[in-house]
């Protein structure tokens, strides 16, 4: 028995060593197609990397901003972040990196122009991050061709137009951040619909703050397991109560500075939620007593609405930072600590 176990350990060790050797040897080599694509990208960007990318005989997998799969040796990740004097448009030559899974342009204000159609050819892409740039134009509908996409972060740019309905076709997309742009129009009703019908029930993240989006919350969103929703500073209207629910996975919700109008009295918060920012809307009814029973609700703001009734005393006895009067002021007839006593309104 001991001999058998020892032989098994030896075989596993030998296989691991061989795999590491293969990975190391492949990493030391640069696939000709990837190298050509990277040099074309650099040329389109004014040879920004030429001194570092072509000096000596260093393989492209060791070049700055480049990461390769350790076994195949193919370029999988391309990161351009916080590079001084980095200017230009996103090169079409990106399409040559056929094994790319992560593409990131981050904190590069000199990058401008539209998101190029060449990106639609990156069939293996799982994360597309273009943030804090001067990229403009629409959020292109051809992003719906990226069937492996899980994260789309286009925040802090100058994008305009509507959110394309084609994003709803992406089966694995569970994170969308297009905040701080110039978007308008309504939310695609089937956004995250593929995710909501999957057996894995991956939580969804939606951040669209600081745009000019309008319309109501799609009824279909009631079936999406959101973990984080930020729709603040838009022009949304109507009923947002489908986002709430005691059985939801919701951890953070920001609906502030819109024109939502619904009865808060029948709303329930999930027990794990830590922030519910609802200020500057037209929400009516009262604050449910259940809000005070949520152990991790550290931030609640319902100011500047049309609420009435008494603030649940349990909200004042917990760890919530919402005990500040500013989190409740400017409502129709809300009363009780930290506001004036209810009998003072009679």
Topology:
Elements: H1 2-27, H2 32-44, H3 50-53, E1 66-68, E2 75-81, E3 88-89, E4 102-113, E5 127-138, E6 151-153, E7 158-161, E8 175-177, E9 182-185, H4 193-196, E10 204-207, E11 212-215, E12 226-230, E13 235-238, E14 252-254, E15 259-260, E16 275-277, E17 284-285, E18 299-301, E19 306-310, H5 313-317, E20 333-335
Key features of this structure:
single chain; 346 residues; alpha/beta; Leucine-rich repeat, LRR (right-handed beta-alpha superhelix); 17-stranded mixed beta sheet; three-stranded parallel beta sheet; 5 helices; elongated; repeat; Leucine-rich repeat-containing N-terminal plant-type domain-containing protein; PGIP
What can be said about this structure in brief?
This protein is an alpha/beta fold and 346 residues long.
Task: Describe the 3D structure.
This protein has 346 residues and is an alpha/beta fold. It has a domain at 63-302: Alpha-Beta Horseshoe (Leucine-rich repeat, LRR (right-handed beta-alpha superhelix)), CATH 3.80.10.10. The chain has helices at 2-27, 32-44, 50-53, 193-196, 313-317; strands spanning 66-68, 75-81, 88-89, 102-113, 127-138, 151-153, 158-161, 175-177, 182-185, 204-207, 212-215, 226-230, 235-238, 252-254, 259-260, 275-277, 284-285, 299-301, 306-310, 333-335. The strands form 2 sheets. The chain has a 17-stranded mixed sheet that branches. It has a 3-stranded parallel sheet with strand order 17-19-20, with no helix packed on it. A hairpin with a 6-residue loop joins β1 (66-68) and β2 (75-81). It starts with a helix and ends in an 11-residue tail after the last strand. The model is unreliable at 14-27 (pLDDT under 50). This is Leucine-rich repeat-containing N-terminal plant-type domain-containing protein. It holds the Pfam family LRRNT_2. Residues 1-25 form the signal peptide. Residues 31-69 form the Leucine-rich repeat-containing N-terminal plant-type domain. Keywords: Glycoprotein, Leucine-rich repeat, Repeat, Signal.
